[in-house]
Amino acid sequence: MTHLLLLVSVLLLCIGAVVYYSLAIYAAIAFFTQTRSQSPDFYPNVTILKPICGLDGDAYENLASFCRQDFPCYQIIFGIQSQTDPSIAVVQQLIQDFPEIDIQFVVSDRVHGTNLKVSNLINADTQAKYDILLIADSDIWVDVDYLRRVVQPLSNASVGVVTCMYRSRTQGWISTFEALSISTEFLPSVLVAHQLEGMTFALGATIVMRRSVLEAIGGLVAVVNYLEDDFQLGHLSVQAGYQVALSDYVVDHVMETETLADLLHHQTRWNRGIRFARPGGYLGLIFTYGTVSSALFLALTAGSSLGWAVFIGTWSIRYFLAWLIGVYYLQDQVAQNFFWLTPLRDLMSFALWCYSFTSNTIEWRGRKLQLLKGGMLIDS
Question: Which strand ranges, in their side-by-side order, compose the sheet holding 377-379?
Fold first, then answer.
């Protein structure tokens, strides 16, 4: 009887995964094939806020890509926490190389809360000139049409926030293996959420906000004690009555994870952040690991015909999902070269998902922090 219950439970997980994969495929096709209107005269002045701490890989080129925008009027403010930060030299070089661009940097170690990145943004925001704010991580690279495209949804007055998906540029097998899950696992879940309930959160790769919306949710101070500050900026804006739009522009994210320990720390911090920010949705991820549950079902049925049918069917649709979103739509180089490793990456993701429930602490830039309900951070 116990064995039968286990078989039925695992089979239900497989069925749930197939339903989820099918929904993700539908959501991707619906999103990437929809017609989007453009407002050729909508080019509001924009302030770009860039928090920096240390030097990322390809730092100059990543930051310089924001200086090459084909856009009428914008300002870039780099927020830096320390006078000895090596990124200051890069910013000074950018100011010299792009004299036509309004570039400033604010160096301040003033701390406003537990999340030092948001403290950095708060310090930089003091020099902002314009009412449209764009926040993007320092490891993001964009093309020259980026600003023109990401501001377009704001031509609709009901849209208060715009956010973007991203694909990764990697070096080495560890960063490649970590990045594989972004376009084949994480972004499919974003598209499913977008299809089912609309965007109720934002992604740190790009967040464009009206100043009025930011003030309505209490400013950046409202998220300074949260780990998932990007999630909260979108979530609080929706609660305040504004829409979050998912742009069709896909930015490039430079990932340079060097060791397996770094990978485990990154993924654990990310998983636990999502677990506390969206506990229900995070628990529901159990239905997305079809490659794992179907392999278990095959083993439990001792290689039966039904077991093989479930296994082959689940893996086939999983591979198609990874190819469709990662390779075809996002044109992610990692997915193009390694999407065949998706089941192995799923296995690691499942193990890390299980591990995330063992504690509420994380490590972040040498600090040990504790997560509370809703994703708030306190020093551990």
Answer: 361-364, 367-371, 377-379
Residue 71, pLDDT score: 95
Burial 315-350 (b: 16+ CB within 10 A, else e): bebbbebbbbbbbebbebbbbeebbebbbebbebbb
What pTM did the predictor assign? 0.93
Token duo for residue 46:
């924009």
Rounded CA separation 85/107 (Å): 9
Q: Quick one: pLDDT at residue 243?
A: 96
Question: Can you tell me whether residue 210 is helix, strand or coil?
Answer: strand
**pLDDT-derived band of residue 229, with 50, 70 and 90 as boundaries?**
very high
Q: Do residues 162 and 150 lie in contact, with contact meaning Cβ atoms separated by under 8 Å?
A: yes
SS (H, E, C) 72-119: CCEEEEEEECCCCCCHHHHHHHHHHHCCCCEEEEEECCCCCCCCHHHH
Between helix 173-181 and helix 260-277 the angle, nearest 10°, is 20
Cα distance between residue 127 and residue 224, in whole Å: 18
